């Protein structure tokens, strides 16, 4: 019989507090999602400071439910509370994170992405037993929508303005008229921005998710663009004749069940002087480094288990790279092994992503 382990009461209480905070965070994702869907953060930004009664009047919602929601949000530190007049408000910083989807610090869509995965939780036990994960379409339309909203800033504000000009000769080709393939295009945010900026070029977005393609087609219908198509590579594969001038992938390779095949397909589609812009999640080569140096590692491993690694293992022989699995070292090794001769990390980057210029 094992000897009884002596328990440190102070450490026990500290650990219980830590777990309690995680449970609280779980509730907060659901309740913040509701607030985002109802437009409560934007309303609070525009109308605050307000009491719950005043908030009910300006939103048209039930005061008692609003009162409890406001109190919860104040307790978790997402909104401000004044004891002087029992009012609630949103700080300027909170307004950026929770309301301004044109700002790089915006993150409210993360709540939607998390809540959208809740339906997959009962299936995780089977995934642990069999190894088989869920594809993006298995996760449902809401998950695709949440991820789309998380990925709006860089395409709208950085891609044409800063990223493309940092690539050797790419802008000149796009202005003159180039063939472009966006592999794993999702809802099409990046390719639509590029197509508008470079009307002489022809753009094709490829994605296996029908939810993503439906959204991409809907966004395309809102424009007058005639130089963009969206297709499923299962029915129209990426060309293998070396006819593409410029290929892009944005947070795609780590999701892919067959990343080597994806990289090989990109290599095969490109002209000899073509360019691949590869963006993926910034991470370290080892778990020990991510644990010690990456303050968002817990968030990313959560995304990985619920979405990214799950997608990468949605086939029986999937690679399972995971959200933090395609770091610069791995990316360099895999691209070189599959024929690419030039790999450079761009100076441009964000706290989340690294960007690579890869050439045959």
UniProtKB/TrEMBL annotation:
Residues 34-98 form the S-adenosylmethionine-dependent methyltransferase Rv2258c-like winged HTH domain. Residues 175-295 form the Methyltransferase domain. Gene3D superfamilies: Vaccinia Virus protein VP39 (3.40.50.150), Winged helix-like DNA-binding domain superfamily/Winged helix DNA-binding domain (1.10.10.10). SUPFAM superfamilies: S-adenosyl-L-methionine-dependent methyltransferases, Winged helix' DNA-binding domain. PANTHER family: METHYLTRANSFERASE DOMAIN-CONTAINING PROTEIN (PTHR45128:SF2), METHYLTRANSFERASE TYPE 11 (PTHR45128). This is Uncharacterized protein.
């Amino acid at each position: 019989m094992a000897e009884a382990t002596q328990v440190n009461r102070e450490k026990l209480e500290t650990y219980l507090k830590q777990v309690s905070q995680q449970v609280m965070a779980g509730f907060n994702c659901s309740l913040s999602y509701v607030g985002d869907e109802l437009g409560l953060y934007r309303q609070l930004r525009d109308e605050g400071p307000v009491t719950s009664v005043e908030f009910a009047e300006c939103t048209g919602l039930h005061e008692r439910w609003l009162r409890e929601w406001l109190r919860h949000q104040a307790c978790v530190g997402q909104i401000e509370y004044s004891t002087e007049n029992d009012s609630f408000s949103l700080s300027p910083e909170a307004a950026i994170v929770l309301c301004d989807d044109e700002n790089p610090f915006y993150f409210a869509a993360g709540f939607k992405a998390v809540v959208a995965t809740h339906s997959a939780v009962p299936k995780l036990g089977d995934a642990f037993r069999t190894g088989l994960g869920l594809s993006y379409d298995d996760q449902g339309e809401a998950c695709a929508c949440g991820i789309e909203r998380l990925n709006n800033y860089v395409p709208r504000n950085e891609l044409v303005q800063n990223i493309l000009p940092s690539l050797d000769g790419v802008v000149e080709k796009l202005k003159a008229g180039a063939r472009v393939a966006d592999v794993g295009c999702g809802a099409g945010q990046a390719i639509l921005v590029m197509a508008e900026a470079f009307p002489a070029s022809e753009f094709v977005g490829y994605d296996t998710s029908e939810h993503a393609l439906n959204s991409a087609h809907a966004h395309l219908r809102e424009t007058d663009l005639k130089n963009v198509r969206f297709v499923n590579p299962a029915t129209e594969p990426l060309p293998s004749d070396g006819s593409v001038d410029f290929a892009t992938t944005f947070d795609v390779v780590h999701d892919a069940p067959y990343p080597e095949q994806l990289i090989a397909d990109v290599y095969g589609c490109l002209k000899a002087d073509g360019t691949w812009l590869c963006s993926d999640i910034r991470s370290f080569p080892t778990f020990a480094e991510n644990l010690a140096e990456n303050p968002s590692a817990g968030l990313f491993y959560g995304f990985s288990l619920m979405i990214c690694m799950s997608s990468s293992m949605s086939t029986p022989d999937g690679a399972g790279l995971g959200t933090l699995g395609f770091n610069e070292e791995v990316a360099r090794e895999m691209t070189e092994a599959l024929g690419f001769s030039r790999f450079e990390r761009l100076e441009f980057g964000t706290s989340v992503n690294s960007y690579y210029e890869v050439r045959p």
